[in-house]
């Protein structure tokens, strides 16, 4: 068989990064106990009003779907629009799927879990990505992707004997505070965001300290302030 192809950047194809633009970083790895697929978008300078609003609305969609409580046997395609609603409110949208199944030490994109119309109903124990975005040709792109586990929801009532479901986001990476317009977030979305940041601090912070990664720990603390 042919040897694997390797790609390395060259001076001819590379360019310098600038603080005046957005960067989308789609990252992941495969480990003995699972597969990760996490995307964050950052801006190190002063974002435009449109960039900030679009990012915030993508984040709102990510939060709205992540905190959704839904009946058992619900297909992902039925709830997918919750990730788009904040964008739809102002006439924006994105042209790709909202999420895909993620294998446990298997495929990063694993059928048949996800939010497409031909995916199977969501069931407790499934892992899926949640990844709304927004893209403006030739200008910038935004995607916020998390890995979420389908879990049983704690609800006041039960219908039909089977518990309702929700998502537990298991990827623990802060969002870019520089791009969030807090004025657009609802009180419920802010509470969710603060609880997520508390989880990141509690789970990731001690590990960074154990590895004596003090600079990373200080960055984590700054990035997860309420």
Description:
- The protein is of the alpha+beta class.
- Helix content is 27%, strand content 19%.
- The protein has five helices and seven strands, in the order ββαααβββββαα.
- It has helices at residues 49-66, 76-79, 85-88, 187-210, 214-223, and strands at residues 22-31, 34-43, 127-130, 133-136, 140-143, 146-152, 165-169.
- The protein has a three-stranded antiparallel β-sheet with strand order 3-6-7. Strands 1-2 form a two-stranded antiparallel sheet. The chain has a two-stranded antiparallel sheet with strand order 4-5.
- A hairpin with a 2-residue loop joins strand 1 (22-31) and strand 2.
Short description:
With 226 residues, the protein is α+β, with helices and mostly antiparallel strands.
What attributes does this structure have?
single chain, 226 residues, alpha+beta, three-stranded antiparallel beta sheet, two-stranded antiparallel sheet, 27% helix
